Amino acid sequence: MQAVISVVHLSKTYASGLKALDDVNLEIRRGEIFALLGPNGAGKTTLIGTICGLVNPSEGKVFVDGHDIVTDYRAARSLIGLVPQELTTDAFESVWNTVSFSRGLFGRRANRAHIEKVLRDLSLWPRKDSKVMTLSGGMKRRLLIAKALSHEPMILFLDEPTAGVDVELRREMWNLVRLLQASGVTIILTTHYIDEAEEMADRIGVIHKGKIILVEEKTEIMRKLGRKQMTLELHEPLTSIPPALSAHKLGGPKGVGALVVRGDASFEALLRGGPQERRRRGGTENVPGIVGLGAAAALAARELAHRSQENERLRDRLWDGIAGKIPRVRRNGAADSLLCNTLNVEFEGVAGELLLQALDLEGIAVSTGAACASGHVEPSHVLVAMGRSARQARSSLRFSLGHGSSEAQIERVLSLLPDLVARARDVGDA
To answer: CA 163 to CA 175: how far, in whole Å?
Structure first.
C-alpha cells in the first residue's frame, strides 16, 4: 500500500542536549489507522510535532504525500490536521466561529456547508452558537477534532485523544475515528493504552527513548502477546500422572492436541507413544490416551448435534426479528442450504463495514466482505458468485453463532440493530 507519510533518518536534539528522536524511520500507509505506543517521554509528541511542522528536525527528512515538510511546508501542512493533548481554544468565542477561523488559517475559502457537516458529524451542531467555555470536557475534545477537520485534511493526528476521559467518551472517540477512516482520512494516534491500540489500529508502532523499536500489524502483535505458556520444574522425575491431574487435559503428540487420561498413564507412553508409533506406524502402547480421546470424541459428537439444533433455532429467531423490525433487508442463500450457525443478511443502502464497526462498539462481533481480505473491504466472492452485485455484497453482514450463543444475546442484537441500521443509512444518504 502506498505510503502517505515517510520519515527518513529523523533525529531531534534540543538545546539542553536531550535527544528526543534518534534516527527514526517510519512509513504510514494511506487510509490506515496507525497507533504509536510509548511511555511518557518516549518521543511520541515530538515525532508528531516534527511531522506537523511545529518542531524543527535536527537531522533527517519527512515527506507528506510527497511534499518535503521543510522545503514545501505549505503544501505539506495543508494536508494535515492536528488534535493536540491540551484543550487550546478561545473560551469566549462561539463554536461556529472557532471552527471557521481554523479553516481560514489554512487559506481555505469559507464553506458553511462543510463546517455544518463537521459539526453535525461530531454532534456539536446544537451547540454551534454556544461559547466554548460552556461546553463539557467531552464536547471540547470533539471541538478540537472539528478544528482539525475544518480545512478538509487527508491526514489526522490525534495526540493521546482519550487521556483522562471516561469510558463512555473513549468509546465515542473510537467510533468517530472509525467513521473518519471510512471517509478516507489517514489517522495517526499516540497512546500508552494497549487496549486502545488493539481496539482501533490497523498497525502498531512502539517508540522508546526516541527510537522506533517495533512496527507490526496489530493482529501479529496481539497473537504474540496473547500466547501463554506455563513451565513446571520438578524436583524429581514423575513416572505417572498424579491423581490430582488425572482429569485435566495435557498436551499430547503433535497433531493430537490434548488428551484426557487416567491417573496411571505412563508419561513416556503418553508423550512419545510406543515403538510402532515412533516408527510412524499404528501402535497400542498409548492405550490410556487413545481411550480418553475416543470417549472425548463421542461426547463431542453428541454435543455438536445438540448445539447445531440450538444454533439453528437461534439463527431463525434472529432472522425473524430482523425481517420484522428492519425494512429493505434480504436473507442471502437458498433456504435448503443454509448453515445452522450462520446468518447472512443484506441491508440495502448500508455500508457493511460501517455497520460492523457500530456493532463492534457495542461488543457484538459480526463480519463482512471477503474472509481473505486484508487492509480493505472486498465484496464476498461467494455472494458475487450467487448473483449478488458487488454493492449488494458490501451491504451484507454475516452473523455467526457459536457454543456460547444464547437467547439473551439474540434479543440484545435485535434491540440495537434497527437504530444502527437507520443511522448507517442516514450516513449513506448524506
So the answer is: 16
